[in-house]
Write a structure and sequence with these properties.
Layout lengths: L6 E6 L5 H13 L3 E6 L9 H8 L10 H6 L2 H7 L2 E7 L1 H8 L6 H8 L4 E5 L3 H5 L1 H13 L2 E2 L3 E4 L5 E5 L3 H12 L8 E6 L4 E4 L2 E3 L6 H12 L3 E6 L11 E4 L3 H11 L5 E4 L6 E3 L18 E3 L3 H7 L5 E7 L4 H11 L4 E5 L8 E2 L2 E4 L4 E3 L3 E2 H16 L2
Parallel strand pairs: 1-2, 1-3, 3-4, 4-5, 8-11, 8-13, 11-12, 13-16, 16-17
Antiparallel strand pairs: 6-7, 9-10, 14-15, 17-19, 18-21, 19-20
Helix pairs in contact: 1-2, 4-6, 5-8, 10-14
The structure holds cytidine-5'-triphosphate.
């Protein structure tokens, strides 16, 4: 949604990773952005302007002195209309040129003439990337305020193994969103918990729940995008740890409690999205429990209510909880808000546990209630943070 209706000038330079720029253009469009491609002469050796134009749904600009195109959309107009310029792949050559103030073709001229953020996604041979001149150019551009994503480490098209692969397209999209996001959480230290916990019965069995961690991860990523320093304490999840945040992996409720308490004093905003197990087996067997003829009784004991403890230890932190309810949602959410001394609670039902979308009701301390329509978890994350920002800056 951050990319929605945004005008992205996508600069493609001449490297083998240029073929990935086609898929990147498609992803920007899928995220409802407008794509205005600029291809350098060298890039046209790797992909055709026709492919790019068809996917981007806008004319490909290539030549400074193309009279027809220049009459339709001038290079100054491109520089001005862009909400963001993304160079993917960015070769050592384009990085060097921009860092030295050279504007000798359409792409370099547009970058020079823009006041919008510029994101470079470098891709090149690893020796080239490690070259001191390239490194100095990148440092210089970063210092001035240009953004960079990647390159990643791995197998390179030239047969080398090392740092030089174009960052994953997902990471480039995330970085583009970060460039465009408001930085209204700058200076805040946000602690987020996510995912389920696992309580072992024996080495091969555990008590858990179907939480995927998607909601908490979406909140952590959104908070990072908006400028916060983020710690994500996660139970077992198949999701990849988001870039640029402190990631703490936990398994049991006890481990999650320990990690959360450790980071709590330094935090200014805490969002407890984890589905913490309320019970654990009183005895966790060291050996696999063999099956009985009829039944097996497992005695359970309570785990700590982490959020309640955070409420009791509150020293000015803004505390957000979730309430998972199958009935009397609002009554129960209000009760939890009070009992756990929260500033805001997000109530939902179990239907959204593993899905991409969710339907939540947000209740604030002053009893303001807002029922949100079904939305993606990313969108819900933004809405929750909007409310947090509005309250803390009131
Ligand atoms: N929570 C927690 N520690 C627990 C259980 C829950 O910190 N041991 C947190 C959850 O992360 C969530 C909030 O408390 O933010 C509410 O969790 P929920 O499962 O909805 O409710 P419970 O407090 O466990 O109460 P109940 O299961 O009776 O509804």
């Amino acid at each position: 949604m951050i990319l929605n209706n945004k005008k992205i000038v996508l600069g493609v330079t001449g490297g083998i990773a240029a073929y990935k720029a086609l898929e990147l253009a498609r992803l920007f469009i899928k995220n409802e952005a407008e794509v205005w491609p600029i291809m350098t002469k060298a890039s046209a050796n790797f992909i055709t302007p026709l492919s790019m134009q068809t996917i981007a749904r806008n004319p490909v600009s290539q030549d400074m002195f193309d009279l027809t195109l220049e009459a339709k959309i001038s290079h100054i107009e491109l520089a001005e209309k862009a909400d963001l310029i993304v160079i993917a792949p960015a070769t050592a050559n384009i990085i060097g040129k921009i860092s030295s103030g050279i504007a000798d073709d359409l792409l370099t001229t547009v970058i020079m003439a823009t006041k919008s953020p510029v994101l470079f996604a470098p891709a090149m041979n690893s020796n080239m990337y490690e070259n001191k001149i390239v490194q100095q150019n990148i440092e210089r551009l970063k210092k001035i305020g240009y953004c960079f994503i990647g390159p990643d480490e791995g197998e390179l098209a030239c047969g080398y193994e090392g740092r030089g692969r174009l960052a994953s397209l997902e990471d480039i999209i995330d970085a583009a969103e970060e460039c465009l996001a408001p930085k209204d959480l700058k200076g805040q230290k946000v602690l987020v918990t996510a995912g389920p916990t696992r309580e072992a019965i024996d080495p091969v069995r555990f008590i858990s729940n179907p939480s995927s961690g998607k909601m908490g991860y979406a909140i952590a990523k959104a908070a990072k995008r908006r400028g916060a320093e983020v710690v994500l304490v996660s139970g077992p999840s198949y999701l990849s740890p988001p870039r640029g945040i402190t990631f703490v992996k936990t398994i049991t409720a006890e481990e999650m409690a320990e990690a959360t308490m450790r980071h709590y004093p330094q935090s200014t905003i805490v969002i407890m999205a984890a589905a913490v197990s309320d019970y654990r087996p009183k005895i966790s067997h060291r050996r696999k429990v063999k099956k009985e003829e009829t039944r097996l009784n497992i005695e359970l004991e309570r785990t700590q209510d982490i959020l309640k403890e955070l409420g009791n230890r509150k020293r000015g932190q803004f505390l957000v909880g979730f309430a998972l309810e199958t009935e009397d949602m609002l009554t129960n959410a209000r009760k939890k808000l009070k009992e756990k001394k929260l500033d805001l609670i997000v109530a939902n039902d179990p239907s959204s546990f593993d899905g991409e979308t969710t339907r939540v009701t947000v209740v604030e301390k002053d009893d303001m209630v807002e029922e949100l329509p079904p939305l993606s978890k990313n969108e819900v994350a933004e809405r929750i943070l909007d409310k947090v920002v509005r309250t803390i800056s009131a």
